[in-house]
Amino acid sequence: MTGSDTNLLGTVHGGVIMKLVDDAAGAVAGRHSEGPAVTASMDEMAFLEPVRVGDLVHVKAQVNWTGRSSMEIGVRVLAERWNESTPATQVGSAYLVFAAVDADGKPRPVPPVIPESERDKRRYQEAEIRRTHRLARRRAIKELRAKRTDEGSEHDGRR
Ligand SMILES: CC(C)(COP(=O)(O)OP(=O)(O)OC[C@H]1O[C@@H](n2cnc3c(N)ncnc32)[C@H](O)[C@@H]1OP(=O)(O)O)[C@@H](O)C(=O)NCCC(=O)NCCS
Question: Positions of the region Disordered (predicted)?
Fold first, then answer.
């Protein structure tokens, strides 16, 4: 990380890390689905420790779960001082959903991911929980908005 990556406090801007996370997840999604894949959502982006100028940042990503055309990618961000031999520490994590798309940008099927190790199986199960919650939350918000529209509660045209 260099001086051009900083926020007003002098540490690395969260958006710089988020771009690295999105890039790594996109590479993993593209490899797994053997074609183009787009970010559908990013959630639970956690910044655990500040990243500093001079840190070497590592981003590790894997496919945790696959649906019909979507994949959940889990990402871990690690940082180490460029001039010290202390081990890298985890500074962030995130879960992203990517959708594999065809040449027209329409969702296309992805090969299933087959979890093998116990850790992969746990990540798969956790991803299913997040998927269930994402869908339930989206549905609940959609229903609330439809209800409020029907009741005429909001008149200012905002969504
Ligand atoms: C993501 C996108 C392809 C989904 O298209 P869609 O017409 O809504 O298609 P679907 O509803 O069939 O969704 C496709 C899959 O993505 C998942 N998905 C769609 N929107 C999602 C969201 N916001 N969060 C999580 N998953 C999502 C669906 O659950 C579905 O998964 P499944 O096939 O495994 O069951 C479309 O919304 C898109 O192109 N978005 C822009 C992506 C982009 O440009 N990203 C870069 C940011 S600039």
Answer: 105-129, 140-159
pLDDT of residue 13: 97
**Predicted confidence (pLDDT) per residue in 14-41, tens digit:** 999 999 999 999 999 999 999 999 999 9
Q: Is the CB of 67 under 6 A from ligand 1?
A: yes
Residues 6+ apart with CB under 8 A from 53: 1, 2, 3, 5, 6, 10, 11, 12
Residues of the chain scoring pLDDT < 70: 155-159
CATH of 3-111, one of 2.60.40.2140, 3.40.50.720, 3.10.129.10, 3.40.1410.10: 3.10.129.10
**Does ligand 1 have an atom closer than 6 angstroms to the CB of 41?**
yes
> Ligand 1 mean position to 90 CA, how many Å?
29
Residue nearest to atom 17 of ligand 1 (CA): 70
With a 6 A CB cut-off, is 76 part of the ligand 1 pocket?
no
